[in-house]
What does this fold into?
Amino acid sequence: MPLQLPVLDDRNYEQLLEAAKRRIPSHTPEWTNFDVESDPGITLVQLFAFLTDNLLYRANRIPERNRLKFLQLLGIPLQPATAAQGLVAIRNDRGPVQAVTLAAGVAALAGNVRFLTRSGLTVLPVEGQVYYKKPVDPASPRHADLTRQFDALRQARLAQAAAAGGAIPEVELRFYETTALKTPTASEPNPLFDLIGDTLDGALYIALLAPKNVPLDTAREAIAHKTLSIGVVPALADDAPPLLPQTRGAERLPIPALVYDLPNLSAAAVSYTRLRVIQAPDVLAQVGIVQLELPGAADLRSWEFGEPLDEGSGDYPPRLEDEQIKARLLTWLRIRVAAPATAGIVAPPVIARLTWLGINAAPVRQAVAVANEPLGSGNGEPDQAVTLANTPVIGDTVRLETQNDDGSWQLWRLSDDLLAADDDDRVFVLDPEAGEIRFGDGLRGARPAAGQRIRVSYEYGGGAVGNVAVGAINATPDPRLQGGFKVENPVPTWGGDQGETTEEGERNIPLYLRHRDRLVTVQDFEDVAMRTPGVDMGRVEVLPLFHPSRSGANPGVVTLVAVPEYDAIRPRWPVPDRLFLQTVCDYLDPRRLITTEVYVRGPEYLDVYLSIGLRVREGHFRDVVIQEVRTRLEEYLSALPPGGPDGDGWPLSRRLMTKDLEATATRVAGVEFVQSIQMGVGSAAPIEARDLTGLQLPRLAKLGVREGEAESLSSLLGETTPGGSPVEVLPAPVSRAKC
It folds into this structure.
């Protein structure tokens, strides 16, 4: 039997007032006009009924307070709101031609939402435009025409090789177009670019351009020996890397890295010089900033071509068609993948897919900085607690100090467990959601001496308001970036989430006591993953012994299917991006067993095409019935609760059958019967059933509902039937990539 909270007195104001009126004849029989609202005595009775109602309200909260106090004694704080993260790029459009060095903590604004940069940045007075060599399809008729057009050039190169003596090489003409890297927009925030598959030579080229109307040598002197910060956002549509077992002797595959080259004009042939890398995170797997040291002004140059046909050929950078851009060119920066030595390990194919790349970039986080907030003085008592003025607090930014007798300040250290501290350890614990700081008792952690002043610097912020679209961060109050500078976020920010409410915290207490914040059972994985801060989780499915790419039972492997709660494009079939999956991975990693291999994936949606013909019952409006059928079928095939056959979203491994879809449509009020139905999965070929395996879930891609016979699937799909797409011929100039 569940425990019920006692209600000390459930009477309300009206009941108290009526009870007092009923007692009037017994206690004061001479009072006969107590039914008159304007009587002064009734006014007093109403006043005391109101006061009693307030007292009962406070008394009835005693059980609630006792329960909350008990939960507080368990030491399980509420999940705080998480702060959104992102990138900003700062451009010097019309500012002074000089490098501006900024420390971490520069404010940037998206309306009323404040962001702070998390690393230092030198804003160079240059513009970076990113290009690549887009190959012309060798199977297209256009390529054959170009081959005939440039055959004279091939013959000339063969004649040059023959005149030089020696073996005559085979000359193969390959054609490309100079194409600018597509940048994210509000309507398409995650464009996909494959550095290996979309380019002719597997490289990106950044053209460093001087500001308009500025001499090239002046711009070169301004950026010489400075640090160039390049922001890289990998493709957000990819899966997050798995959490591999942390066993001794486990061989980890090498991480592919990007290399960065500048033109080397001192060599006779085409060659590049490798730049020194100051900071190089794994930007092919996670969003990061690469910092490069630029050489002197004399080395910041590019090739000059006496023969126009040589420009852009071979290993040279792509040819620039715009003469105004070419006149501002300082130098080229080539970026490509260098496969590391594997030392006998068979490395998987290199995947280098990007969403955005640009210069003068810095990471940002939604936060407001507070410096040296006074927290009063120490009282010398055990377990002293102080409360910060602003919440939620970002834990890794807290810096607490106490003042010594000589006036100097001594730093204390943030800890997650006072029980592990010694009596002289100057540590404290933080509840980021409540903003409460608590010190030790003198035996487990030191306590501030009586009269010692306490001050703290920290950052606070968080919530879904920090998840802003492309270009929403567009201002800064920093005086160094006024007049000619522009701040902008090239990709949407991510990770902002609301904190846990008291009701949610109470509901999750039994779950926490059950799994102890450790992943052992299937239910543990589901409970912990659902509480991942920074994401809105709509559904979690746990598949033990299942590997996403291997069949059969796989001991030690656990795969989680994570479905977001919201998707603006397909609300019933959300698709998690890489940042979403990586956030879940980062939260599960410290809580899993070290021998467990964990994969976090999104569902594999299979496009379902459905056409239904039905008979509308007499007396029902046709359009309303058809719309209700569409809504019911979308809900039935939904991946999120309360959709699906059982209200939990479409189950994994459940067979998809036309019989079930027909029954769902028939149960709609106003449907006499389903006259005919056709279903296709991935194509226009009608089928009766389809078995779903692994991570597969159905997604209703096309639905046709009408009265009478069902429309054929081929007619329903029209030109949208999955298959080959027509070849698009772009009227762009063609340069030679190899000759």
Summary: The longest strand covers residues 604-616. DSSP finds 14 helices and 34 strands in the chain. The two ends are 84 Å apart (CA to CA). The chain has a mean pLDDT of 86.
